[in-house]
Amino acid sequence: MFDLGWSKLIIIAMLAIVVVGPKDLPALLRTIGKFVGQIRRQAEEFRRQFDEAMKDTELDQIRKDVEDIKRTATDSLRDIERTAEDSVKPLETTAAEITDLGNGSAATASNGALAEVPMPSPISATDLPPMPTSPALPTEAPSLTKASA
To answer: For the whole model, what pTM was predicted?
Structure first.
């Protein structure tokens, strides 16, 4: 803006002394200082108001962002709940059918006839094949008595 070096400031000071006079120079500098102070205070007040307006704008934007995040999270939770409920419904239906079958109530199959669940027959010891024996292993387990211990 202004290119004021030391040489130019000395020239301005010399002209001020010549034009104003050495007697009125301190009062002139004091008046200039007051005006510069007022200008600085007004500039600082303007800057403060501008920063406050920016902060309010930023806070409003942050509030909107938080509300959007909250809304998105709520929607996501609702979608998860619906998906979980949809996933559990077939399991509940199947559990109810199994309970009905276990209680002996009549459950119909898809063709309309009564559905029967076949029960397996019990296995007896005679139905099992014989266990192979090894010649290296004793056929009877040794008995433990107080005398041998």
So the answer is: 0.37
